[in-house]
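Backbone-to-sequence.
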């Protein structure tokens, strides 16, 4: 497991919350309790790694819309704090130049610019950034950033000035290169994948043929879905799990994936119309949504973390048990985070895995998890 816990503070409906994360985490709750804010907070951690944090916050409505929406203490400056702890980073098939996996923690603090900063007035500014290593009784600081200056550890463990010319909107995690531990964390977080529904309208990229390029995993918008299926069928030559999932959801249906030439494509044939193959442009929204989720969860190579936000959207309730079984299967190969308002889906996942969902609630005006203590421990753990 990579992600072990997360801390989000000052983000929309989230005043401050810290909680552990499992290999498979399912968060379920009613509309308006802040489920998506937990999902989005985790996604912003990835944005810090890819270097798009300020841009993504601007696209999200800017700092004024992402800060904690409740009351603050007198004189308290608005701040957004995101922190994650990881384990076994650098181990496994992608070694990132590290002989053994290690367990770092990454934290970033975001606020408004100071008057002298080289930035636009409402642009998100990095106030502090830190990467630490859990080692012995005291954590070792591997990278620390205050304002525009960044300090890091060199190969001999000495604290050196790594960069003193960062823009206030740039993250050190995305900018620094050549430090194995920092590189490993950046690559791990950058490899996470987030899926928040898929477009299924007439011009959706999922409904169009894809380029004939081997696709080890699904793009966030699903545009390479046909290539993902073709990679499984013709390069990996193993579609057992995919075929089983389709049979589970649509008994008797057959997925046909021809060998790609210039483009990759697929069709689905149903038992009540055996002579009529339906292309992606003709399938119903729910069927196409289900197939896209199969591409995300059963691709040739799964990312270290897959986050799904309300995957039940557009799906008929009868499809949710089949989806739950695929989610359970994916969790054997990757860490999976599911945010849903469907108790049918969360109960089906629990029935498959024995892992009970965490209920997202409102507590003292902010987003919280049922059974979570103030120190970030669940009673049943």
């Amino acid at each position: 497991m990579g992600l072990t816990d997360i801390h989000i503070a000052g983000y929309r409906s989230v005043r401050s919350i810290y909680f552990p994360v499992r290999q498979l985490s399912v968060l379920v709750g009613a509309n308006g309790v802040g489920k998506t804010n937990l999902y989005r907070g985790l996604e912003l951690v990835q944005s810090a790694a890819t270097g798009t944090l300020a841009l993504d916050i601007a696209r999200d409505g800017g700092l004024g819309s992402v800060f904690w929406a409740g009351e603050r203490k007198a004189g308290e400056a608005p701040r957004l704090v995101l922190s994650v702890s990881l384990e076994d980073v650098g181990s496994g098939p992608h070694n990132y130049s590290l002989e053994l996996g290690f367990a770092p923690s990454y934290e970033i603090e975001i606020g408004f610019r100071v008057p002298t900063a080289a930035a636009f007035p409402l642009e998100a500014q990095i106030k502090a950034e830190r990467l630490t290593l859990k080692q012995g009784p005291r954590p070792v600081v591997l990278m620390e950033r205050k304002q525009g200056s960044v300090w890091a550890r060199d190969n001999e463990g000495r604290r050196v000035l790594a960069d003193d010319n960062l823009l206030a909107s740039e993250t050190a995690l995305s900018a620094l290169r050549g430090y194995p531990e920092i590189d490993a964390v950046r690559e791990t977080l950058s490899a996470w994948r987030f899926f928040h529904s898929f477009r299924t309208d007439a011009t959706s990229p999922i409904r169009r043929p894809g380029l004939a390029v081997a696709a080890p995993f699904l793009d966030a918008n699903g545009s390479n879905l046909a290539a993902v299926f073709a990679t499984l069928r013709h390069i990996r030559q193993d579609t057992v799990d995919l075929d089983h999932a389709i049979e589970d959801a649509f008994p008797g249906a057959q997925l046909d994936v021809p060998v790609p030439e210039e483009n990759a494509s697929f069709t689905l044939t149903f038992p009540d119309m055996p002579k009529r193959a339906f292309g992606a442009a003709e399938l119903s929204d729910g069927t196409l949504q289900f197939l896209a989720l199969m591409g995300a969860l059963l691709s040739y190579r799964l990312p270290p973390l897959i986050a799904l936000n309300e995957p039940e959207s557009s799906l008929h309730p009868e499809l949710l048990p089949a989806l739950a079984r695929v989610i359970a299967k994916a969790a054997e190969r990757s860490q999976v985070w599911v945010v849903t308002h469907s108790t049918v889906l969360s109960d089906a996942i629990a029935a498959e895995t024995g892992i009970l969902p965490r209920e997202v609630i409102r507590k003292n005006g902010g987003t919280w998890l049922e059974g979570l203590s103030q120190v970030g421990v669940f009673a049943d753990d």
